[in-house]
Specification:
Blueprint (H helix, E strand, L loop, with lengths): L12 H20 L4 H19 L4 H8 L7 H8 L1 E5 L12 E8 L2 E8 L5 H7 L6 H16 L4 E7 L6 H5 L2 H13 L5 E10 H5 L6 E5 L3 E3 L3 H8 L6 H7 L4 H6 L5 E3 L10 H19 L4 H13 L19
Parallel strand pairs: 3-4, 4-5, 5-6, 5-7, 6-8
Antiparallel strand pairs: 1-2, 2-3
Helix pairs in contact: 1-2, 3-11, 4-13, 6-8, 10-11
Length: about 325
């Protein structure tokens, strides 16, 4: 287990305290030669039981916090464990390279794929370099360039979503942020290759959707996906960011909510305690599902693939107003 976290969430503290006690006992037993194996086993079972209990009762806001955990695996971490021979491609051929978007070609178990994804940083310096995972228009254009390359060479596309939103700065707007995202939506809707979307952290608004149109949408269980962040929603509805936990409760942004609403297709279970506890196991679980989806989607011909993709997004939010009940006429006496 990974215990040296950069941040410990409030509901994780009892688990971390037990883990520290177990580590101290192991160190003491090793230094003194005392046999504390039974006590260590007992505490380990207690820690696992406590962890299971806590993480089975998470609120939507707690899942938002987990999605933002700085120790959570990012796109490059999944690439490290899932992809071999990864070749990162840079630049949009218009303005610059955007480090907030990773794009390139690699292999997964002998299957050559194209990969795009948001990338955050682990510390202040890296976060400034990656712009906290908030892409500029050149990032979306870079992603589109690599996806068009995938279409040219008949490669499945895997897209990792993890962003608090597209960058809203003046420069990004001047260089066509809205147009870049809109064009990606259009292009991805008819690319003639399988596209698998994997939500691995935050999925906020058009910033996520800019590389989020695909045939299958997978979502790690401790993520969120919505048109706005809970803080943004709270600021609009109550003019108070502190009401973000309340907003998260009603926004239907968790994996289970979105599966019920047919926004996503599958929830990917995380290791006990969340993906930040074990990057390698998280990647192994996700890899299995990615390969399964690639195999299924490659069986479809292009016409059927595109038809299903368009139908999928056309049905999201579709509402049929039931016919009004006919009022019975009162009989005159």
């Amino acid at each position: 287990m990974r215990k040296n976290f950069k941040m410990i969430l409030e509901f994780e503290k009892p688990i971390i305290e037990l883990e520290k006690k177990i580590t101290e006992m192991e160190d003491y037993a090793r230094d003194t030669g005392l046999d504390l194996s039974e006590d260590i086993k007992r505490l380990s079972r207690k820690a696992q039981s406590l962890q299971k209990e806590i993480y089975s009762k998470l609120t939507p806001w707690q899942r938002v916090q987990l999605a933002r955990h700085p120790d959570r695996p990012y796109t490059l971490d999944y690439i490290k464990y899932i992809v071999t021979d990864f070749l990162e491609l840079h630049g949009d051929r218009y303005f610059a390279d955007d480090p907030a978007i990773i794009a390139g070609i690699g292999m997964i178990n002998g299957e050559r794929v194209a990969i795009v994804g948001h990338q955050k940083g682990r510390d202040v310096k890296e976060n400034l370099f990656r712009n906290f995972g908030m892409a500029h228009p050149e990032g979306y254009r870079k992603a589109r360039r690599v996806m068009n390359l995938a279409a040219k060479f008949d490669l499945p596309i895997i897209s990792f979503l993890d962003t608090p939103g597209a960058y809203p700065g003046i420069g990004a707007e001047e260089r066509g942020q809205a147009e870049a995202i809109a064009k990606n939506l259009l292009e991805m809707s008819h690319l003639p290759v399988p596209i698998i979307i994997a939500i691995i952290g935050e999925g906020a608004s058009g910033g996520a959707l800019g590389i989020g149109v695909g045939d299958v949408i997978l979502m790690m269980e401790n993520c969120w996906y919505s048109v706005i962040s809970p803080e943004g929603c709270a600021a609009i509805l109550w003019r108070d960011n502190a009401k973000a936990p309340q907003a998260a409760e009603v926004m239907k942004l968790t994996a289970s909510d979105l599966l019920e609403l047919n926004i996503i297709d599958k929830i990917i279970k995380e290791p006990q305690g969340g993906a930040h506890w074990d990057h390698e196991q998280s990647a192994s679980i996700l890899k299995k599902h990615l390969l399964e989806e690639i195999h299924v989607l490659k069986q479809l011909d292009v016409k059927e693939l595109l038809q299903k993709r368009v139908e999928k997004f056309s049905q999201m939010g579709y509402w049929v107003d039931p016919e009004p009940k006919k009022r019975s006429k009162r009989k005159s006496k």
